Amino acid sequence: MAELYYFILTNTAPLYRVLYQSDYFFIDLWSINHFISGFILMIILLRKQSRHPFAILIFLLFFYECLEMAFTYLAVNIFRPEIIQDQFTDIVVGFFGGFLGWKSVRTKRKENKAFGIQEIIHE
C-alpha cells in the first residue's frame, strides 16, 4: 500500500505548484482539475436531466473537499493537506467549470433550434 501512496504523491507533485495566492484565493495546478471536473459533472447532470443541477454540483464539490479532508485526518497520505483558501477556491473553480458546461449545452441547444435541428434524447 505504501508503494501506491508513493506513486500517487510523486506523480501529482507538480500539480501543487502555486499560481496565485491571496487572503481569499489559492490557485494551483490542481485548480485546472477542479475546473474540468465541474465541467464534466455538469454535462453528466444535464444529460441525466437532473432537476437541480447546480445544487447537486455544489453538493458534489463540497463532498469531495470533505473527502479530501477525511483522507488527511485518517492519515491516508494520498494528498497533501490543504489550507482553507485552497478548499474554498477548489469549490468556486469547480462551480465555474460547471457553469461553463451549462452555458455550452445551453448555447448548443439554441444553435440547434436556430438551424431547425431537432435534438434526440436517449434514455
How would you characterize this protein structure?
The protein is mainly α and 123 residues long. It has one domain. It contains 4 helices and 2 strands. It has a two-stranded antiparallel sheet.
Outline of the structure:
This protein has 4 helices and 2 strands. By secondary structure, the chain is mostly helical. Strands 1-2 form a two-stranded antiparallel ribbon.
Report the count of strand segments. Answer: 2
What's the structural domain tally? 1
Please give the order of strands in the largest beta sheet.
1-2
Which parts are unreliable, with pLDDT below 50 for 5 consecutive residues or more?
none
Query: What best-fitting shape do the alpha-carbon axes yield?
Result: elongated
User: In DSSP terms, counting alpha (H) and pi (I) runs of 4 or more, how many helices?
Assistant: 4
Q: What Rg, in angstroms, do the CA atoms define?
A: 18 Å
Order of helices and strands: HEEHHH
- The proportion of strand residues reads 5-15%
